Input
Amino acid sequence: MFSCDYKTLSLTFNDFHDVADKNMPEYGQYCLLELKDGRFTGGSWYPNDYHKKIAKGKFIRGTADVVEVTDVLRWHLLDGYDLTCKLEDPDMGNINLESKKEGRPSKKFSGFKSTRDGDCPEEDQYCLIILLNGRVASGRWNKFREKNEGTFIYAPALGQYTSEKVWAWTPLSSDYFFEIEQERKKERIREEELNKNPSLDENKFKYGKDIFAYYEKALEKLRKKYPWASMAQMMKNTPWDIVPLHGQYVFGQKSKTYDGYDMVTECKKGNSTEEFIKFLCEYAEDTVKRSNPEEKFKFGHDIEVYLEKAYGKVKKDYHWFDKKMLKKARSYAIKQIDGDWEFVEKYKGDSKEYICECESAERFIENVEYEYQDIALSENPVVSEYKVPFKSIEIHGWYLEHYIFYKLKSGDYKVDVQAGDRVTGGSRTFFITPDCFKAKTYEEFLDNYLSIVPGTSFGLGKKELLPNKELKNFLGY
Output
């Protein structure tokens, strides 16, 4: 730790360069910036042409956070300074970055603070910082949600200096992002004051401030059409509540903003008690409709019955599949949750159980089948492969990257298709069912196969695959 007192320390910048002179920093160098309106900030220089030293470009401060060079009066390097030796001097009071030059402007910054003392910048405040390695830098403060700590963002993709790396900081000038956050902070304070004693519209809230009184009324109406309807079913969608907003009670939903603050979404269809109850019925109807216990549990409440049906269906085509392989599977059960019977699942290594949102027994069995199929394929080693050659193929905006057939140890086959665009991608694996190979000819096989992996969806159709003699031979035709 450095010996000098950051509370009395000043940094003086003496080597500013005028943008008008068109003598710009090197690509990527981080700089202290004096703007034309007199404010100070920082940024990393990115010219429009990386191969030429031109005065056209921008200074990047973070993701979607830039300063155009046309707004900058002059710049001063932050990179390249190591203040370690000076900071180890207990009597150090001011550090000059470069010698003061006649006719050149200089700027002094002081008032440094430390997060180790519990002093943190305000949210989105842009700061000049001194790192624990003695370097000078800058960044925008991003507060962590749940404690009085944070990090200084200085580059895209959340390039940052965590508070553990920072010795001291002092704020630079206010800017657009900081002003927006300050206005949001003022609005939150105003909202808190208004909501200390909210008013209540008696016509709108005939049954008082207990939201369950309104849910009960809606439930009575729903049960006329769906006798099995329950409160638990109605509450599966994001529940509504009676909450204060702008100084009055409203029907609304509470949630958190990305930065951890409470947010209320008001129900615009609840101008009266009757209207809101009608809305609750409409809001929950689809969930209630799909929760008919006679459909969900038509085979009873023994989970093994459902799992056995799924196993039998998978075993039909995945003939090597056996119950020893199920040690990899999730565990399933049928339990009462808030008074309603539900299918629940628990992943390996996870103590928490999750509700399987399935409207019918068939849908639940189908979901289990998908898992069992994946397990079966993972337990059947690949013995050989054939990569289908192709030229550039576009599939609904994505480009085909690979199309590979695999022969498995059991003698069966699967195919893996991968596609992507400039920033993302995905792949799918398909088991080629034995029924496909009942075809006597390669052409007949393709007719069966393309019903599983259609060319319109995955890039290669009969026109491209039929002439491929190597693939024909690989598949045993």
